[in-house]
Amino acid sequence: MRITALAGGIGGSRFLRGLLRAEPDAEVTVIGNTADDITLHGLHVSPDLDTVMYTLGGGIDEAQGWGRAAETHTVAEELAEYGAEAPWFTLGDRDLATHLIRTRMLTAGYPLSAVTEALCDRWRPGVRLIPMTDDRVETHVVIGDDEGGEKAIHFQEWWVRLHAEAPARRIVLVGAEQAKPAPGVLDAIAGADVILLPPSNPVVSIGPILAVPGIRDAVRAASAPKVGLSPIIGGSPVRGMADAALTAIGVPTTAAGVAELFADLLDGWLVDTVDEAATQQVEAAGIRARAVPLWMTDPDTTAAMARAALDLAAEVR
Ligand code: GDP
Ligand code: FO1
Ligand code: CA
What we know:
Blueprint lengths: L1 E6 L2 H13 L4 E6 L5 E3 L2 E3 L1 H11 L16 H8 L11 H15 L4 H12 L4 E4 L6 E7 L5 E5 H7 L8 E5 L10 H6 L3 E4 L4 H10 L3 H7 L4 E4 L12 H7 L6 H7 L6 E4 L6 H7 L3 E4 L7 H18 L1
Parallel strand pairs: 1-2, 1-9, 2-5, 9-10, 10-11, 11-12
Antiparallel strand pairs: 3-4, 6-7, 6-8
Helix pairs in contact: 1-2, 1-13, 2-5, 4-5, 11-12
């Protein structure tokens, strides 16, 4: 079975780990979000690609959900002593090696998709990981400034430094309109037997992937059933500040609200059992809905979620 999934960082990669457990023989292609990418100290950092690569490759810091296991921070401490840029964004020593290799290959002229493939040669994540685009796309968040005006800041500054507490007036995907899907992305969508939307942040993880011209249309046009899993349980984003991003685009932080955001392309949607009542609203939007446990507490529970998504896909096919 060929499965294509669109994924952000932590939510996406934890779900993918369950998917590989539920369906070990599946050929899984992951289209990763790159709009969180940031250049720091001259290095190209791709948090969501790395989170997928490290999680599935066994190198993730499990408790934190991002960055490397058994990490040290000697370089970060030295950079702080120099008063270097962005002290709020910590790059660990082990993680830095990834950014060094990535930047070196990009500078040598390789596209990000080829660089990602090379990095995955080491990590062997068990999926084919493709960035959504080889072009630069950056999520910026417009917030109020001290003079009563407004300013746009990089998504990571809003998320990590400001903890998404500064109300977002707009979320702008800089460069998205000019971006092209990376090689292999459209084929992976058109050739899939099932297309999955894991419980990733709908606004700043799945949103940017679908905003690359051609990707949303390709998903909609694909013959495969398209099934998503709600990243919102009982009106809360479980982990992180997805509610702040949803509010910024005027979408309620509910399992049904997120389904409606993707109503043009979804055939099926899973909500958590506490949101069982939301299935009616989702079905009214023309999407088959089921309620199953959606807390990714352990590998078995997460595999059961993936199984439920594939069962729903078979049902709506
Ligand atoms: P990020 O890029 O690291 O922020 O990760 P993603 O975009 O892939 O996923 C983040 C989202 O995962 C959060 O907004 C949560 O809503 C969702 N999430 C995290 N843990 C769980 C869980 O156990 N169950 C469900 N259903 N959603 C989760
Ligand atoms: N998240 C943080 O909250 N603080 C950090 O210092 C931080 C550093 C970092 C370094 C590499 C990496 O791949 C991810 C990192 N993250 C950090 C996580 C990450 O950038 C965000 O959680 C997501 O991009 C939000 O979607
Ligand atoms: Ca992310």
